[in-house]
């Protein structure tokens, strides 16, 4: 496969479509700096899928699209295509030719095509993989890559071998595996943190669940007694309610009958009053109609007068239009008659002009014939003149030869004298050269000593640099370790923050209340749980947490109403239960005065409420829970404090041991970890402090890193300066050795010259005989040249006379032609005048026709308007007559309505008095009904309260309660047992019923997390095994590829340098995964040196040798070389071009170069130029092989 064709359009400076057709062998692209040569290399790289803008010498994708110039607008599209020969099936496609196209639009979109079919970038990359031109190949080699090898550190050079060996994908897989390990470790830390938080809550939650179960057992018995007693009271109340309801019903019937009579009387009253209102409205409406009719009558009279006035105006305008129309028609006829003669004269003039133009063409034909004859004669005259000049030159040349021979004779005589003088001088110079050679040998010895000293100092500086690099690497590793610790701490902090934000570890009811409050729509009076409203240091965290127990999740509310609203909300959503502490009703429970002396005992630290911080408004709630809890240093101090308080207060130690009222004790070991409720903020603060401390350490390490990096850079610069001095000294030594060699050669040359001077005398005698023979031959040739010159002069004079006669004839024809042209111009002016006059005639005629048409239209429109106004006037007259009759009818109707209005007013006044008497009777009866109703309401209210209690306490209606009715014996005994059960329930204190479900949920989650922990540890072990296997594969592939490249490098170096030797070696063979790769080379005639100690040209050629070694191990069907020979001298350019020619038998090369040796060795040459005004690059090509063959034939 090789690159056949390359199309580019709109890419950088190539605005116009440009096509390059490549052949096998070497194609070279040349052109001045800035002409756009390297844009071709960028375009090939881009179409093959390059995404890094830096590699394309740009900062944005728009930079690759032609940006416009002074003469050309910016383009919106860049397109590049490459066509490749696939006859050998190198590419995995069933085509003999494969064309890959890439487009980029200024809007930001882009597309790829394979044989004009759209595809993805990945399809392009997959197409080129394993073909030698993929992303990891050496199909594109630029000067930057050569410099990269020269300037790279050994660790950086190994990356090139990794790329060749295909290790990059394994290293990426290793990075991905390590990333997964880190992520899994973070997840493991998160899971363990959550397990730690859950573990702290499970044990106290188990005790709470047992207490809650006892509470439920008591509550069941209490509910049974309460339900039966409430059913008894409700049944008795229903009997009393039935008796009162009968009395109320009888009174309500009497009230209803009286209200019906009143309603009938008031209905009649309202009907008459409504009729009166209706009459008023009708009367007002008729009066409004009468007013409107009179107003319309006045308006119609005004319209009638206006229509008559408009009709008179239309008649006048119509007469004026008819008069103007007649006038315009007359003007049209007059204009038509006046211009008939001009039209005929214009026709005659055009015919005369045509005849005169034919005469001019005839004269021009004759003139052209004479002109051609004149040109032929002048051409013959020039040829004769050239022959005369050539004859004169030949004569002059012969004279010059004679003068030269004379000069040579004089020179020969002078040379003989100088030869004898020079022989004497050479004896003196030979002695001086011998002395100078001995002096240079001494100076070269001194330079060699100085060079040895410089190299010793350079090695010491290199060791110091290596030590600094090692220190810098240690600092880098330390920074990495700090970063890893930071990541772990941040991960743990993030896990705790997630737990905090998600309310993990909270009872379900508490979580629902807080989430509703956070939603912002309800429960805004909720302040928070107790654990969130207090602040305690790490020292008092455990005793306060132990003292609170599950009360840490008690919800503090602003008032009792908010607590009631929250309980209703939990019932509504069936969201569990919670305990609430309303700040307006909660009662503080401080330590009693008789026990406050216990605070002064040794080992007693104070009350729990006094050891924590909180806002003052939360004091009632905090004092209620912790005001009477004493905190002691240890269990002995706690026992003493409990005894001093007569076993009546709760005492907690710093280790979490508890002595309860009554003397019971609890304690033991505590699980490691923080509570996810009370101390989560303490943990987060501690983590924030640790993170801050590590960040400061990281910042300090970064500062040290910068300092060491600066020192390393300075050391590198110093060593580089030493190397430069060393190179300069070596160059001086090489120069001195060269001078010594030249001096020796000069000495030998002088000795040879002395022997040659003796031969010059014999040669001078022979030279004199040769010059004499040349002078005789030259005299004969000069005589022949004079005779030829005289004959040419005679022919020249005869031809000159004939040319003069032809010019006279040509002048006469020119005069005739000029006269005809003058007359023709006069006729043309008259014809233009006629045409202008006729143009005016046609324009005026057109304007008259347009005006006549417009006036005719106006006349028709005025006729139509007159007819419309006459019709309108008739309609207005008819409307006036109709309105007059309507006004008379409305006047009679208004009179009848006023009479009916007076009759209804009298009837309404009479019915109003009757209605007032009936209402007095109704008021007395309603008072009696109210007394009976109030008694019934009180009874029903009592029944409703009992029913509400039944529903609120037991969630039952009366029917459900009757279904659960049992025989409870004597009601008095039952009520006594009910009071006893309430005392037992109160003795239990605060009970968290949600703890039963919460304990089951937390236990289930804890078991799940334990399984998840095991799975994560197993995943980490498997990923570690994958990393080890990847390391083994990378080590093996790296060693195999290194051995291949090392052998190929030795061969390519020897071929490029014409001898010498070079090697690449590992800086740390024991660590193949991290070792660097260094280079040593020995050009022909020199000692083995590190790459950095070679001259600039030697470095470049050595780097090129390494690149071609890569290319030999992993061949590419074609390769683009962008000015990689720039740093080579002429000799090395020759070696490079010869090597390239050998290599081109297997690889097609596209070379961008300025160097003559490379250009001369090309098969095809492409030139790139740029017009500085347009800013557009253009191409031209030359087939050098064809040109060479043509030159050989010539």
Radius of gyration: 60 Å
Quickly give the structural class. Answer: alpha+beta
Helix content: over 70%
According to DSSP, the number of beta strands is 25
Strand order in the largest sheet = 2-1-4-5-6-7
Could you describe the 3D structure shown?
The chain is α+β, with helices and mostly antiparallel strands and 1194 residues long. The protein is built from 20 helices and 25 strands. The strands form 6 sheets. Strands 2-1-4-5-6-7 form a 6-stranded antiparallel β-sheet. α4 crosses α16, α5 crosses α13 and α5 packs across α15. The chain starts with a strand and ends with a helix.
Please sum up the structure shown.
This protein is an alpha+beta fold. A 6-stranded antiparallel β-sheet has the order 2-1-4-5-6-7.
Essential attributes:
disordered C terminus, alpha+beta, single chain, 1194 residues, six-stranded antiparallel beta sheet, flat
Write the layout of secondary structure elements.
Layout (H helix, E strand, L loop, with lengths): L2 E7 L8 E4 L4 E5 L6 H11 L29 E9 L11 E9 L4 E5 L2 E3 L1 H8 L11 E3 H9 L2 H12 L2 H171 L1 H163 L5 H11 L7 E4 H4 E2 L2 H11 L6 E3 L2 H14 L6 E3 L21 E4 L5 E2 L4 H8 L2 E4 L2 H10 L5 E4 L4 E2 L5 E2 L13 H275 L3 H6 L7 H18 L5 H64 L3 E6 L10 E6 L6 E2 L5 H18 L4 E5 L7 H14 L4 E5 L3 H5 L3 E8 L4 E8 H10 L1
Parallel strand pairs: 3-23, 3-24, 8-22, 11-12, 15-16, 22-23
Antiparallel strand pairs: 1-2, 1-4, 4-5, 5-6, 6-7, 9-11, 10-14, 13-15, 16-17, 17-18, 19-20, 20-21, 24-25
Helix pairs in contact: 3-17, 4-16, 5-6, 5-13, 5-15, 5-16, 6-13, 16-17
